[in-house]
């Protein structure tokens, strides 16, 4: 092949050592590299800041393996019956359902205010700021705070869980609303329809299946949140039994049984929500 | 759409709402939840929050200690997420249909991910607490296990989305499997993966509070301590520092995301 | 001297659907051959059997006298370094630079570690720049591939194939996604590669006119069988009808 002997030096970028550079050195690559480096360094540093009180690594690891073996291979119920177990799982599911459904209703109205195509800019912005603030407080803190303020009970748990459900669903719902074909809204506006009319006749029918799917996806999350609230905030249900079995009775076999129960329900919920996702959100990797 | 179908649709919608109402009613019954009471408690609760959850000057004296524990929690979340990401990357490459070596390993990778994802973080923390005891490593491991499950699923999606055609092209040049992974698959899915990692760090800081309450570590432990001794000024201060931290991290990761995606 | 021998090649998918049926031909070094046929005739599969991106079910493919079907991993890599490939959708890595994509053509010569770390010699990089200059896209060397037009991306694809220093280049519908102007540019480059550099080219095309204009020899495929094999000037309307089926006559002459 006939080749020009000299490279066109104007086009070739070189590194400091004179070698030809093949990276573009654009902003994206730089930010990606920096992020990875910083995370790596912070991770290494983390292990120097950890509090290792009372840790015997060797015993801990062998102990954990032994415990896992007992838990998963010999699960039994000792402190309560099968019926009781179903009842407790029911409570946890119930807490999840209530937080999800009430959350969806509240989120629907807030999302109408947050969607840019249906609301005023100042309103949409303020709703978003409030939602961001709510999201920043961990659910367990909401539940615990409500537990003192409203007295311990399922009310505190549901109200506390409601906050994050609303925050999650407002984001998801308002994004669904914003994806509505503007033609539909315009056509209804042109006929002189009131705002409510637009919502009921235009917005709701064209987004209903999405709203339902998102609500179910949130229910999947709320189930594990409800387990956590039972364990950490005394909200009752299977989570509380898990906490008792491990922290009070030190009964690994029962911990194993409860873990299986949670696992089975979580997997069923995940299968359903994966099917929903593939059906209604084929390519969207949702970051909420 | 004819009239018959419309009537059918309307009937279906009604039926659907009836089912929802029944489920809600059953849930309320089993959990002993009273709608009216809970609506009534909301104003009372906010009143309580506004009059009790106040940061006092006194409580500020504890700030250095709180920040110390908060730092531990942030480090715990970052370390758990980053290390989990490394493991998830391997599992995702084994699990994705684009890059899998064979069906057996793919199934194993997906199984591990599903197992660690669907057992809640609470269960992991309680299980680990028994043998690891009350220290940072317990919280770290609990977050780590849960994160591996979540990130593997997310990474598998990212790898599947990477376009298959450049993989074919690289194979055609005589590239090896690892060439193909490192130069065709990773460059395409890395930004998406990084976005998931940032998302998971935010989530983990919130989960770390929960895990901390259960395992007696980090900021969760501090919160639990003052919550139980009813020192609400400190509870307020701790909550405030958590809010600020989470928002700062969210802002930073949104900034990064805007550039790389 | 024959570079490629295809003897009784058959390929099925799912055990029964026959995509290729008893294909026989021989290609000499330096030839510019076009494979034409309606979509679904098996053109893409035929090309992919030659560098074994798909496995061969029956028959033989001999490249430089070596049996492709029975090759082990290592031999297969060596075979693929000798065969460049150009794709309809260019198949570049979109987020990487043009120059990086061109250098991907060198992976066949690299150990795993060298490739993963992106260790390319200065000579290889210079070669990449020379090729980009030759194809008139050197000024885009540091751009991301997804910022280029289709015609430019295909030229990157050609550079990637050329840097392999191949004996044979397989082109799978290289102009099917391009506008007429870019198509002409690409076909001209492919022709000059064949005539100036002496690299054998097999080009899948669905445009008969283009095939007749550029190729010295045409192989017509219909339903997985060779129905025409000869110099392009002997491809008359009668043969075209035979390849594409009578009903599509109007489509071809338009």
Explained architecture:
Chain A: It comes from Gracilibacillus pellucidus. The complex is a heterotrimer of chains A (about 290), B (about 260) and C (about 250). With about 290 residues, chain A is mainly α. In chain A, about 75% of the residues lie in helices and about 0% in strands. Chain A has two domains: about 1-50; about 85-285, MetI-like (MetI-like fold), CATH 1.10.3720. The relative contact order of chain A is 0.11. With about 260 residues, chain B is mainly alpha-helical. Chain B is globular and about 70 Å long. Chain B contains eleven helices and no strands. The model of chain B has no long low-confidence stretch (mean pLDDT about 90). Chain B folds into two domains: about 5-50, no CATH class; about 60-260, MetI-like fold (Orthogonal Bundle), CATH 1.10.3720.10. In chain B, helix 4 runs parallel beside helix 11 (about 230-260). Helices cover about 35% and strands about 25% of the residues of chain C. In chain C, a hairpin with a 2-residue loop joins strand 9 and strand 10 (about 225-230). Chains in contact: A-B, A-C, B-C. At the A-B interface, helix 1, helix 2, helix 3, helix 4 and helix 5 of A face helix 1, helix 2, helix 4, helix 5 and helix 6 of B.
Count the strands of chain A?
A: 0
Q: Tell me which CATH architecture of the largest domain in chain A applies here.
A: Orthogonal Bundle
Beta-strand level of the residues of chain B, as a percent range? under 5%
Tell me the series of helices and strands of chain A, N- to C-terminal.
HHHHHHHHHH
**Element-by-element helix/strand order of chain B:** HHHHHHHHHHH
Q: Strand pairing plus helix content of chain A: what structural class?
A: mainly alpha
* Whole-number total of structural domains of chain B: 2
Q: What can be said about the biggest beta sheet of chain B?
A: none
The tally of helices of chain B reads 11
Structural class of chain B: mainly alpha
Provide the residue-averaged pLDDT of chain A. Answer: 86
The outline of chain B comes out as globular
CATH homologous group name of the largest domain in chain B:
MetI-like
Unreliable runs of chain B: none
Organism (chain A): Gracilibacillus pellucidus
Protein name (chain A): ABC transporter permease subunit
Keywords (chain C): ATP-binding, Nucleotide-binding
Protein name (chain C): Phosphonate ABC transporter ATP-binding protein
């Amino acid at each position: 092949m006939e080749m020009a002997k000299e490279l066109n030096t104007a086009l070739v970028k070189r590194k400091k050592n004179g070698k030809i550079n093949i990276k573009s050195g654009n902003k994206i690559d730089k930010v990606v590299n920096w992020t990875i480096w910083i995370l790596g360094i912070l991770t290494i540093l983390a292990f120097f800041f950890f509090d290792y009180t009372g840790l015997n690594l060797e015993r801990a690891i062998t102990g954990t393996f032994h415990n896992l073996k007992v838990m998963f291979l010999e699960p039994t119920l000792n402190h309560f019956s099968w019926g009781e177990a179903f009842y407790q799982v029911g409570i946890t599911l119930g807490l999840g359902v209530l937080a999800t459904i009430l959350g969806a209703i509240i989120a629907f109205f807030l999302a109408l205010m947050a969607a840019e195509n249906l609301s005023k800019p100042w309103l949409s912005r303020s709703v978003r700021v409030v939602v961001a603030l709510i999201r920043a407080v961990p659910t367990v803190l909401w539940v615990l705070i409500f537990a003192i303020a409203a007295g311990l009970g399922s009310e505190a748990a549901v109200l506390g869980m409601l906050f994050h459900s609303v925050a999650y669903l407002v984001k998801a719902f308002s994004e669904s609303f914003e994806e509505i074909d503007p033609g539909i809204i315009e056509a209804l506006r042109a006929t002189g329809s009131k705002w409510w009319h637009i919502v009921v006749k235009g917005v709701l029918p064209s987004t209903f299946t999405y709203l339902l799917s998102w609500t179910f996806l949130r229910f999947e999350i709320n189930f594990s949140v409800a387990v956590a609230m039972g364990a950490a905030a005394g909200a009752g249900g299977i989570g509380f039994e898990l906490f008792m079995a491990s922290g009070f009775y030190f009964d690994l076999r029962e911990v194993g049984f409860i873990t299986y129960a949670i696992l089975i329900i979580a997997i069923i919920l995940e299968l359903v929500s994966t099917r929903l996702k593939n059906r209604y959100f084929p390519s969207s990797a949702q970051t909420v | 759409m004819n009239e018959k179908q419309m009537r059918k649709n309307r009937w279906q919608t009604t039926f659907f709402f009836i089912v929802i109402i029944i489920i809600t009613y059953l849930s309320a019954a089993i959990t002993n939840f009273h709608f009216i009471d809970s609506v009534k408690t909301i104003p009372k609760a906010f009143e309580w929050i506004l009059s009790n959850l106040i940061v006092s000057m006194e409580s500020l004296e504890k700030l250095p200690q709180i920040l110390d524990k908060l730092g531990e929690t942030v480090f715990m979340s970052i370390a758990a997420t980053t290390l989990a990401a490394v493991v998830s990357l391997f599992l995702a490459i084994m699990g994705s249909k684009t890059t899998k070596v064979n069906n057996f390993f793919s199934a194993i990778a997906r199984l591990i991910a599903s197992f660690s994802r669907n057992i809640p973080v609470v269960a992991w923390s309680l299980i680990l607490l028994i043998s690891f005891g009350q220290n940072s490593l317990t919280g770290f491991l609990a977050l780590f296990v849960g994160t591996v499950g979540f990130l593997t699923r997310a990474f598998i999606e990212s790898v599947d989305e990477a376009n298959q055609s450049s993989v074919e092209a690289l194979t055609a040049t005589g590239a090896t499997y690892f060439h193909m992974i490192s130069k065709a698959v990773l460059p395409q899915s890395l930004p998406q993966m990084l976005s998931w990692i940032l998302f998971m760090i935010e989530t983990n800081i919130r989960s770390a509070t929960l895990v901390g309450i259960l395992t007696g570590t980090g900021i969760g432990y501090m919160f639990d301590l003052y919550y139980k001794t009813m020192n609400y000024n400190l509870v307020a201060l701790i909550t405030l520092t958590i809010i600020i931290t989470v928002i700062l991290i969210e802002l930073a990761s949104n900034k990064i995301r805007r550039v790389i995606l | 001297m024959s570079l490629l021998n295809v003897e009784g090649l058959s390929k099925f998918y799912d055990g029964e659907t026959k995509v290729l049926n008893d294909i026989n031909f021989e290609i000499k070094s330096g030839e510019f051959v076009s494979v034409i046929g309606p979509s679904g005739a098996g053109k893409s599969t035929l090309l992919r059997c030659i560098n074994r991106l798909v496995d061969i079910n029956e028959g033989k493919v001999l490249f430089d006298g070596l049996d492709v079907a029975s090759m082990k991993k290592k031999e297969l890599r060596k075979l693929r370094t000798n065969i460049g490939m150009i794709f309809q959708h260019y198949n570049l890595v979109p987020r990487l630079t043009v120059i990086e994509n061109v250098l991907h053509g060198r992976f066949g010569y690299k150990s795993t570690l060298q490739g993963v770390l992106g260790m390319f010699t200065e000579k290889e990089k210079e070669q990449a720049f020379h090729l980009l200059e030759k194809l008139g896209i050197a000024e885009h060397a540091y751009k991301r591939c997804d910022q280029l037009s289709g015609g430019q991306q295909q030229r990157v694809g050609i550079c990637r194939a050329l840097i392999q220093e191949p004996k044979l280049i397989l082109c799978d519908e290289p102009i099917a996604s391009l506008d007429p102007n870019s198509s002409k540019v690409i076909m001209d480059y492919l022709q000059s590669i064949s005539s100036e550099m002496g690299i054998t080219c097999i080009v899948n095309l669905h445009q008969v006119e283009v095939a007749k204009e550029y190729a010295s020899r045409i192989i017509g495929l219909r339903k997985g069988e060779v129905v025409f094999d000869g110099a392009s000037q002997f491809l008359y309307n009668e043969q075209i009808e035979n390849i594409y089926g009578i009903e599509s006559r109007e489509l071809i002459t338009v």
